[in-house]
Amino acid sequence: MTGGSGGSRAPxxxxxxxxxxxxxxxxxxxAEVARRAGVAKSTLSQLESGSGNPSVETLWxxxxxxxxxFGQLVQPxxxxxxxxxxxxxxxxxxxxxxxxxTLLASCPPNARRDIxxxxxxxxxxxxxxxxxxxxxxxxxxxxxxxxxxxxxxxxELYPGDYIAYPGDVxxxxxxxxxxxxxxxxxxxx
Amino acid sequence: MTGGSGGSRAPxxxxxxxxxxxxxxxxxxxAEVARRAGVAKSTLSQLESGSGNPSVETLWxxxxxxxxxFGQLVQPxxxxxxxxxxxxxxxxxxxxxxxxxTLLASCPPNARRDIxxxxxxxxxxxxxxxxxxxxxxxxxxxxxxxxxxxxxxxxELYPGDYIAYPGDVxxxxxxxxxxxxxxxxxxxx
DNA sequence: TCGAATCGTTCATCTTGACGAACACCCCTG
DNA sequence: CAGGGGTGTTCGTCAAGATGAACGATTCGA
Lengths: 189, 189
Known about the structure:
2 copies of one chain form a homodimer.
Chain A: H1 11-25, H2 30-37, H3 41-48, H4 56-66, E1 82-84, E2 91-92, E3 99-106, E4 113-120, E5 126-128, E6 135-143, E7 146-150, E8 155-157, E9 162-166, E10 171-175, E11 180-188
Antiparallel strand pairs in A: 2-3, 3-4, 4-11, 5-10, 6-9, 6-11, 7-8, 7-10
Helix pairs in contact in A: 2-3, 2-4
Chain A binds a DNA duplex through α3.
Protein backbone atom coordinates (compact mmCIF):
# COMPACT_ATOMS: atom_id res chain seq x y z
CA MET A 1 0.00 0.00 0.00
CA THR A 2 1.12 3.49 -0.55
CA GLY A 3 2.07 5.41 2.46
CA GLY A 4 1.78 8.80 0.94
CA SER A 5 -1.88 9.07 0.33
CA GLY A 6 -4.15 6.19 -0.45
CA GLY A 7 -4.92 3.63 2.19
CA SER A 8 -5.46 5.63 5.28
CA ARG A 9 -6.16 2.52 7.28
CA ALA A 10 -3.61 1.86 9.97
CA PRO A 11 -0.96 -0.44 8.62
CA UNK A 12 -0.87 -2.64 11.69
CA UNK A 13 -4.32 -4.07 11.14
CA UNK A 14 -3.48 -4.71 7.53
CA UNK A 15 -0.27 -6.43 8.46
CA UNK A 16 -2.08 -8.60 10.93
CA UNK A 17 -4.56 -9.91 8.41
CA UNK A 18 -1.98 -10.12 5.66
CA UNK A 19 0.34 -12.23 7.74
CA UNK A 20 -2.40 -14.63 8.66
CA UNK A 21 -3.83 -14.81 5.16
CA UNK A 22 -0.48 -15.44 3.50
CA UNK A 23 0.48 -18.00 6.06
CA UNK A 24 -2.75 -19.93 5.65
CA UNK A 25 -2.42 -19.55 1.91
CA UNK A 26 0.65 -21.74 1.89
CA UNK A 27 -0.77 -23.94 4.62
CA UNK A 28 1.96 -23.55 7.20
CA UNK A 29 1.62 -23.51 10.93
CA UNK A 30 2.40 -20.46 12.96
CA ALA A 31 5.32 -22.22 14.56
CA GLU A 32 6.77 -23.29 11.25
CA VAL A 33 6.65 -19.82 9.73
CA ALA A 34 8.18 -18.38 12.86
CA ARG A 35 10.97 -20.94 12.68
CA ARG A 36 11.69 -20.21 9.02
CA ALA A 37 11.67 -16.50 9.62
CA GLY A 38 13.83 -16.79 12.68
CA VAL A 39 11.38 -14.94 14.89
CA ALA A 40 9.70 -16.05 18.05
CA LYS A 41 6.43 -17.86 17.64
CA SER A 42 4.95 -15.59 20.26
CA THR A 43 5.95 -12.56 18.23
CA LEU A 44 4.21 -13.84 15.14
CA SER A 45 1.17 -14.71 17.20
CA GLN A 46 0.92 -11.20 18.54
CA LEU A 47 1.40 -9.70 15.12
CA GLU A 48 -1.33 -11.80 13.60
CA SER A 49 -3.63 -10.86 16.44
CA GLY A 50 -3.19 -7.21 15.65
CA SER A 51 -1.22 -6.18 18.69
CA GLY A 52 2.37 -5.26 18.22
CA ASN A 53 4.27 -2.95 15.93
CA PRO A 54 6.94 -5.03 14.24
CA SER A 55 10.32 -3.71 13.33
CA VAL A 56 11.33 -3.67 9.72
CA GLU A 57 13.75 -6.51 10.28
CA THR A 58 11.05 -8.68 11.75
CA LEU A 59 8.57 -7.92 9.03
CA TRP A 60 11.25 -8.45 6.43
CA UNK A 61 12.11 -11.86 7.81
CA UNK A 62 8.46 -12.79 7.72
CA UNK A 63 8.00 -11.58 4.18
CA UNK A 64 10.95 -13.75 3.16
CA UNK A 65 9.59 -16.76 4.98
CA UNK A 66 6.17 -16.28 3.43
CA UNK A 67 7.61 -15.47 0.03
CA UNK A 68 5.58 -12.32 -0.13
CA UNK A 69 6.81 -8.97 -1.40
CA PHE A 70 7.52 -6.72 1.51
CA GLY A 71 5.19 -3.91 0.59
CA GLN A 72 2.41 -6.37 -0.03
CA LEU A 73 2.05 -7.03 3.66
CA VAL A 74 0.95 -3.45 4.19
CA GLN A 75 -1.64 -3.34 1.50
CA PRO A 76 -5.34 -3.63 2.10
CA UNK A 77 -7.46 -5.55 -0.36
CA UNK A 78 -10.54 -4.60 -2.20
CA UNK A 79 -12.05 -6.73 -4.92
CA UNK A 80 -15.32 -6.24 -6.76
CA UNK A 81 -16.59 -7.11 -10.18
CA UNK A 82 -16.04 -4.35 -12.67
CA UNK A 83 -16.53 -4.29 -16.41
CA UNK A 84 -15.29 -1.75 -18.90
CA UNK A 85 -16.54 -2.05 -22.44
CA UNK A 86 -14.23 -1.51 -25.37
CA UNK A 87 -13.62 2.17 -25.83
CA UNK A 88 -15.55 3.16 -22.71
CA UNK A 89 -12.71 3.45 -20.26
CA UNK A 90 -11.10 6.77 -19.42
CA UNK A 91 -8.74 7.47 -22.29
CA UNK A 92 -5.32 8.67 -21.40
CA UNK A 93 -4.08 11.85 -22.96
CA UNK A 94 -1.80 11.35 -25.93
CA UNK A 95 -0.24 13.92 -28.17
CA UNK A 96 -0.49 11.75 -31.21
CA UNK A 97 -3.93 10.87 -32.49
CA UNK A 98 -2.64 7.48 -33.59
CA UNK A 99 -2.09 6.22 -30.05
CA UNK A 100 -4.87 5.74 -27.52
CA UNK A 101 -4.36 4.17 -24.11
CA THR A 102 -7.47 3.25 -22.14
CA LEU A 103 -7.11 2.91 -18.40
CA LEU A 104 -8.83 -0.31 -17.42
CA ALA A 105 -7.77 -0.87 -13.84
CA SER A 106 -6.14 1.45 -11.41
CA CYS A 107 -5.79 -0.10 -8.00
CA PRO A 108 -6.72 1.99 -4.98
CA PRO A 109 -6.45 5.72 -5.47
CA ASN A 110 -2.78 5.56 -6.24
CA ALA A 111 -1.90 2.59 -8.25
CA ARG A 112 0.68 0.00 -7.64
CA ARG A 113 -0.41 -1.58 -10.87
CA ASP A 114 -2.39 -0.14 -13.73
CA ILE A 115 -3.82 -2.00 -16.71
CA UNK A 116 -4.20 -0.25 -20.04
CA UNK A 117 -5.61 -1.22 -23.39
CA UNK A 118 -3.57 0.34 -26.15
CA UNK A 119 -4.69 0.78 -29.70
CA UNK A 120 -2.27 2.36 -32.09
CA UNK A 121 -1.80 3.14 -35.75
CA UNK A 122 1.45 3.24 -37.69
CA UNK A 123 2.98 6.67 -37.46
CA UNK A 124 5.02 8.52 -34.94
CA UNK A 125 6.25 6.09 -32.34
CA UNK A 126 4.99 6.80 -28.87
CA UNK A 127 8.01 7.59 -26.73
CA UNK A 128 7.77 7.69 -22.97
CA UNK A 129 10.19 9.40 -20.70
CA UNK A 130 11.53 7.34 -17.81
CA UNK A 131 9.15 6.98 -14.91
CA UNK A 132 9.93 6.47 -11.28
CA UNK A 133 12.46 3.81 -10.51
CA UNK A 134 10.76 0.57 -9.58
CA UNK A 135 8.24 0.67 -12.38
CA UNK A 136 7.91 -2.37 -14.61
CA UNK A 137 5.78 -2.48 -17.72
CA UNK A 138 4.39 -5.64 -19.25
CA UNK A 139 2.99 -5.64 -22.77
CA UNK A 140 1.04 -8.42 -24.46
CA UNK A 141 0.33 -7.77 -28.11
CA UNK A 142 -3.24 -8.63 -29.09
CA UNK A 143 -3.34 -7.66 -32.73
CA UNK A 144 -1.14 -6.12 -35.39
CA UNK A 145 2.58 -5.73 -35.01
CA UNK A 146 4.66 -3.33 -32.97
CA UNK A 147 8.12 -2.33 -31.81
CA UNK A 148 8.07 -2.25 -28.03
CA UNK A 149 10.56 -1.95 -25.20
CA UNK A 150 13.46 0.20 -24.17
CA UNK A 151 14.15 3.00 -26.60
CA UNK A 152 17.65 1.89 -27.50
CA UNK A 153 16.70 -1.66 -28.30
CA UNK A 154 13.01 -2.24 -28.95
CA UNK A 155 11.65 -5.66 -29.80
CA GLU A 156 9.30 -6.52 -32.62
CA LEU A 157 6.18 -8.14 -31.24
CA TYR A 158 3.57 -10.28 -32.95
CA PRO A 159 0.15 -11.21 -31.59
CA GLY A 160 0.55 -13.25 -28.43
CA ASP A 161 4.06 -12.04 -27.77
CA TYR A 162 4.95 -10.69 -24.38
CA ILE A 163 7.61 -8.30 -23.18
CA ALA A 164 8.52 -6.85 -19.81
CA TYR A 165 10.90 -3.95 -19.37
CA PRO A 166 11.90 -1.47 -16.68
CA GLY A 167 9.92 1.72 -16.70
CA ASP A 168 12.64 3.93 -15.36
CA VAL A 169 14.37 4.17 -18.71
CA UNK A 170 13.06 5.70 -21.90
CA UNK A 171 10.78 3.28 -23.71
CA UNK A 172 8.78 3.20 -26.89
CA UNK A 173 5.66 1.77 -28.52
CA UNK A 174 5.61 1.94 -32.30
CA UNK A 175 2.81 0.32 -34.25
CA UNK A 176 3.92 -1.32 -37.47
CA UNK A 177 0.49 -2.31 -38.73
CA UNK A 178 -2.90 -0.61 -38.67
CA UNK A 179 -5.16 -1.36 -35.73
CA UNK A 180 -2.40 -2.63 -33.52
CA UNK A 181 -3.78 -3.51 -30.08
CA UNK A 182 -1.96 -4.38 -26.87
CA UNK A 183 -2.57 -4.87 -23.18
CA UNK A 184 -0.16 -3.00 -20.95
CA UNK A 185 0.33 -3.66 -17.27
CA UNK A 186 2.34 -1.00 -15.48
CA UNK A 187 3.30 -1.83 -11.95
CA UNK A 188 5.19 -0.08 -9.21
CA UNK A 189 7.20 -2.66 -7.39
CA MET B 1 11.31 -4.78 -3.01
CA THR B 2 10.21 -8.27 -2.89
CA GLY B 3 10.70 -9.90 0.38
CA GLY B 4 10.51 -13.39 -0.89
CA SER B 5 13.55 -13.57 -3.02
CA GLY B 6 14.86 -10.82 -5.21
CA GLY B 7 16.99 -8.22 -3.53
CA SER B 8 18.89 -10.04 -0.88
CA ARG B 9 20.39 -6.80 0.35
CA ALA B 10 19.53 -5.96 3.91
CA PRO B 11 16.50 -3.70 3.97
CA UNK B 12 17.95 -1.37 6.56
CA UNK B 13 20.60 0.02 4.26
CA UNK B 14 18.05 0.50 1.55
CA UNK B 15 15.72 2.29 3.92
CA UNK B 16 18.52 4.55 5.03
CA UNK B 17 19.37 5.73 1.56
CA UNK B 18 15.75 5.84 0.47
CA UNK B 19 14.77 8.06 3.35
CA UNK B 20 17.57 10.48 2.68
CA UNK B 21 17.07 10.49 -1.06
CA UNK B 22 13.33 11.09 -0.84
CA UNK B 23 13.74 13.79 1.75
CA UNK B 24 16.33 15.65 -0.26
CA UNK B 25 14.26 15.14 -3.39
CA UNK B 26 11.53 17.34 -1.96
CA UNK B 27 14.04 19.64 -0.34
CA UNK B 28 12.93 19.37 3.25
CA UNK B 29 15.07 19.51 6.34
CA UNK B 30 15.47 16.56 8.59
CA ALA B 31 13.67 18.39 11.37
CA GLU B 32 10.75 19.32 9.15
CA VAL B 33 10.18 15.78 7.92
CA ALA B 34 10.43 14.50 11.46
CA ARG B 35 7.87 17.04 12.58
CA ARG B 36 5.43 16.17 9.81
CA ALA B 37 5.83 12.47 10.48
CA GLY B 38 5.49 12.93 14.19
CA VAL B 39 8.74 11.16 14.97
CA ALA B 40 11.76 12.43 16.81
CA LYS B 41 14.30 14.13 14.69
CA SER B 42 16.97 12.05 16.35
CA THR B 43 15.19 8.94 15.22
CA LEU B 44 15.13 10.06 11.63
CA SER B 45 18.76 11.02 11.84
CA GLN B 46 19.72 7.57 13.02
CA LEU B 47 17.62 5.91 10.38
CA GLU B 48 19.19 7.92 7.59
CA SER B 49 22.61 7.09 8.92
CA GLY B 50 21.88 3.41 8.63
CA SER B 51 21.74 2.54 12.29
CA GLY B 52 18.43 1.57 13.76
CA ASN B 53 15.67 -0.80 12.80
CA PRO B 54 12.48 1.22 12.58
CA SER B 55 9.11 -0.11 13.55
CA VAL B 56 6.43 -0.29 10.95
CA GLU B 57 4.57 2.60 12.51
CA THR B 58 7.63 4.80 12.33
CA LEU B 59 8.39 3.88 8.76
CA TRP B 60 4.75 4.30 7.84
CA UNK B 61 4.64 7.78 9.31
CA UNK B 62 7.74 8.69 7.37
CA UNK B 63 6.37 7.31 4.14
CA UNK B 64 3.29 9.43 4.63
CA UNK B 65 5.31 12.52 5.40
CA UNK B 66 7.50 11.96 2.37
CA UNK B 67 4.55 11.02 0.21
CA UNK B 68 6.27 7.85 -0.88
CA UNK B 69 4.67 4.42 -1.23
CA PHE B 70 5.52 2.32 1.74
CA GLY B 71 7.04 -0.57 -0.12
CA GLN B 72 9.18 1.75 -2.17
CA LEU B 73 11.28 2.64 0.82
CA VAL B 74 12.43 -0.95 0.96
CA GLN B 75 12.94 -1.63 -2.66
CA PRO B 76 16.19 -1.68 -4.58
CA UNK B 77 15.53 -4.21 -7.36
CA UNK B 78 16.02 -3.36 -10.97
CA UNK B 79 14.02 -5.27 -13.54
CA UNK B 80 15.35 -6.41 -16.89
CA UNK B 81 13.86 -6.80 -20.28
CA UNK B 82 12.21 -10.14 -20.94
CA UNK B 83 10.43 -11.37 -24.02
CA UNK B 84 8.24 -14.42 -24.46
CA UNK B 85 7.20 -15.29 -27.99
CA UNK B 86 3.70 -16.45 -28.76
CA UNK B 87 3.32 -20.05 -27.72
CA UNK B 88 6.73 -20.27 -26.13
CA UNK B 89 5.83 -19.57 -22.54
CA UNK B 90 5.27 -22.33 -20.03
CA UNK B 91 1.77 -23.62 -20.67
CA UNK B 92 -0.39 -24.21 -17.66
CA UNK B 93 -2.00 -27.57 -17.25
CA UNK B 94 -5.59 -27.72 -18.34
CA UNK B 95 -7.94 -30.66 -18.33
CA UNK B 96 -9.68 -29.51 -21.45
CA UNK B 97 -7.69 -29.37 -24.66
CA UNK B 98 -9.69 -26.37 -25.77
CA UNK B 99 -8.24 -24.09 -23.13
CA UNK B 100 -4.58 -23.15 -22.94
CA UNK B 101 -3.17 -20.63 -20.50
CA THR B 102 0.40 -19.47 -21.04
CA LEU B 103 2.21 -18.02 -18.08
CA LEU B 104 3.86 -14.82 -19.25
CA ALA B 105 5.00 -13.12 -16.10
CA SER B 106 5.36 -14.51 -12.67
CA CYS B 107 6.93 -11.92 -10.47
CA PRO B 108 9.93 -13.05 -8.54
CA PRO B 109 9.79 -16.75 -8.16
CA ASN B 110 6.41 -16.90 -6.58
CA ALA B 111 4.00 -14.44 -7.85
CA ARG B 112 1.75 -11.98 -6.21
CA ARG B 113 0.72 -11.09 -9.70
CA ASP B 114 0.74 -13.41 -12.66
CA ILE B 115 0.03 -12.58 -16.28
CA UNK B 116 -1.40 -15.24 -18.56
CA UNK B 117 -2.23 -15.40 -22.20
CA UNK B 118 -5.34 -17.49 -22.69
CA UNK B 119 -6.43 -19.05 -25.94
CA UNK B 120 -9.63 -21.01 -25.90
CA UNK B 121 -12.03 -22.76 -28.22
CA UNK B 122 -15.79 -23.08 -27.79
CA UNK B 123 -16.61 -26.12 -25.75
CA UNK B 124 -16.65 -26.96 -22.11
CA UNK B 125 -16.38 -23.77 -20.12
CA UNK B 126 -13.32 -23.57 -17.96
CA UNK B 127 -14.51 -23.40 -14.36
CA UNK B 128 -12.20 -22.44 -11.56
CA UNK B 129 -12.81 -23.17 -7.95
CA UNK B 130 -12.49 -20.25 -5.58
CA UNK B 131 -8.94 -19.34 -4.67
CA UNK B 132 -7.74 -17.78 -1.48
CA UNK B 133 -9.39 -14.55 -0.46
CA UNK B 134 -7.44 -11.57 -1.65
CA UNK B 135 -7.12 -12.72 -5.24
CA UNK B 136 -8.37 -10.49 -8.01
CA UNK B 137 -8.43 -11.48 -11.66
CA UNK B 138 -8.44 -9.06 -14.55
CA UNK B 139 -9.32 -10.19 -18.06
CA UNK B 140 -8.94 -8.21 -21.28
CA UNK B 141 -10.38 -9.94 -24.30
CA UNK B 142 -8.11 -9.76 -27.33
CA UNK B 143 -10.04 -11.74 -29.92
CA UNK B 144 -13.20 -13.76 -30.26
CA UNK B 145 -15.99 -13.65 -27.72
CA UNK B 146 -16.29 -15.14 -24.24
CA UNK B 147 -18.36 -15.41 -21.11
CA UNK B 148 -16.16 -14.39 -18.20
CA UNK B 149 -16.55 -13.62 -14.53
CA UNK B 150 -18.14 -15.05 -11.46
CA UNK B 151 -19.85 -18.34 -12.12
CA UNK B 152 -23.33 -17.19 -11.14
CA UNK B 153 -23.30 -14.15 -13.33
CA UNK B 154 -20.71 -14.17 -16.10
CA UNK B 155 -20.38 -11.28 -18.53
CA GLU B 156 -20.15 -11.54 -22.29
CA LEU B 157 -16.97 -9.91 -23.48
CA TYR B 158 -16.02 -8.63 -26.90
CA PRO B 159 -12.53 -7.69 -28.07
CA GLY B 160 -11.22 -4.80 -26.02
CA ASP B 161 -13.61 -5.41 -23.15
CA TYR B 162 -12.27 -5.64 -19.65
CA ILE B 163 -13.53 -7.31 -16.50
CA ALA B 164 -12.21 -7.61 -12.97
CA TYR B 165 -13.65 -10.00 -10.41
CA PRO B 166 -12.69 -11.44 -7.05
CA GLY B 167 -10.90 -14.75 -7.25
CA ASP B 168 -12.25 -16.08 -4.00
CA VAL B 169 -15.51 -17.13 -5.59
CA UNK B 170 -16.08 -19.66 -8.34
CA UNK B 171 -15.44 -18.13 -11.73
CA UNK B 172 -15.60 -19.18 -15.34
CA UNK B 173 -14.10 -18.61 -18.78
CA UNK B 174 -16.20 -19.88 -21.66
CA UNK B 175 -15.19 -19.18 -25.25
CA UNK B 176 -18.09 -18.43 -27.57
CA UNK B 177 -16.09 -18.20 -30.77
CA UNK B 178 -13.15 -20.13 -32.17
CA UNK B 179 -9.69 -18.78 -31.41
CA UNK B 180 -10.78 -16.68 -28.53
CA UNK B 181 -7.80 -14.98 -26.93
CA UNK B 182 -7.51 -13.04 -23.69
CA UNK B 183 -4.95 -11.59 -21.33
CA UNK B 184 -5.47 -12.51 -17.70
CA UNK B 185 -3.83 -10.79 -14.77
CA UNK B 186 -4.21 -12.63 -11.51
CA UNK B 187 -3.03 -10.75 -8.46
CA UNK B 188 -2.92 -11.51 -4.79
CA UNK B 189 -3.73 -8.32 -2.97
C1' DT C 1 31.86 40.65 14.94
C1' DC C 2 28.19 39.33 17.26
C1' DG C 3 23.88 36.97 17.63
C1' DA C 4 19.98 34.49 15.96
C1' DA C 5 18.35 30.76 13.29
C1' DT C 6 18.82 26.45 11.19
C1' DC C 7 21.20 22.46 10.13
C1' DG C 8 22.31 17.47 11.63
C1' DT C 9 24.40 14.78 15.45
C1' DT C 10 25.02 12.74 20.12
C1' DC C 11 23.49 11.35 24.70
C1' DA C 12 20.64 9.65 28.96
C1' DT C 13 16.15 8.05 29.73
C1' DC C 14 12.02 5.62 29.08
C1' DT C 15 9.06 2.88 26.42
C1' DT C 16 8.30 -1.14 23.74
C1' DG C 17 9.21 -5.01 20.77
C1' DA C 18 11.34 -9.68 20.71
C1' DC C 19 12.22 -13.64 23.10
C1' DG C 20 11.41 -18.35 25.33
C1' DA C 21 9.05 -21.00 28.63
C1' DA C 22 4.85 -22.28 30.29
C1' DC C 23 0.19 -22.62 29.24
C1' DA C 24 -4.55 -24.26 27.44
C1' DC C 25 -6.53 -26.53 23.63
C1' DC C 26 -7.54 -30.08 20.00
C1' DC C 27 -6.93 -34.38 17.41
C1' DC C 28 -5.53 -38.79 17.06
C1' DT C 29 -3.74 -43.30 18.86
C1' DG C 30 -2.87 -47.12 21.89
C1' DC D 1 -9.07 -42.77 29.38
C1' DA D 2 -4.32 -41.50 29.54
C1' DG D 3 -0.74 -39.63 26.52
C1' DG D 4 1.92 -37.86 22.81
C1' DG D 5 2.18 -34.54 18.93
C1' DG D 6 0.27 -30.74 17.08
C1' DT D 7 -2.11 -26.16 17.24
C1' DG D 8 -2.08 -21.00 18.96
C1' DT D 9 -1.99 -18.28 23.26
C1' DT D 10 -0.19 -15.69 27.53
C1' DC D 11 3.50 -13.94 30.65
C1' DG D 12 8.01 -12.21 32.72
C1' DT D 13 12.50 -10.76 31.24
C1' DC D 14 15.78 -8.28 28.50
C1' DA D 15 17.55 -5.92 24.64
C1' DA D 16 16.53 -2.25 21.44
C1' DG D 17 13.90 1.55 19.43
C1' DA D 18 11.93 6.17 20.24
C1' DT D 19 12.32 10.33 22.64
C1' DG D 20 13.76 15.23 23.95
C1' DA D 21 17.35 18.01 25.42
C1' DA D 22 21.85 19.49 24.68
C1' DC D 23 25.61 19.95 21.49
C1' DG D 24 28.85 21.72 17.61
C1' DA D 25 28.64 23.47 12.90
C1' DT D 26 26.94 26.49 9.45
C1' DT D 27 24.57 30.37 7.33
C1' DC D 28 22.85 34.97 7.22
C1' DG D 29 21.92 39.68 8.52
C1' DA D 30 22.37 43.63 11.74
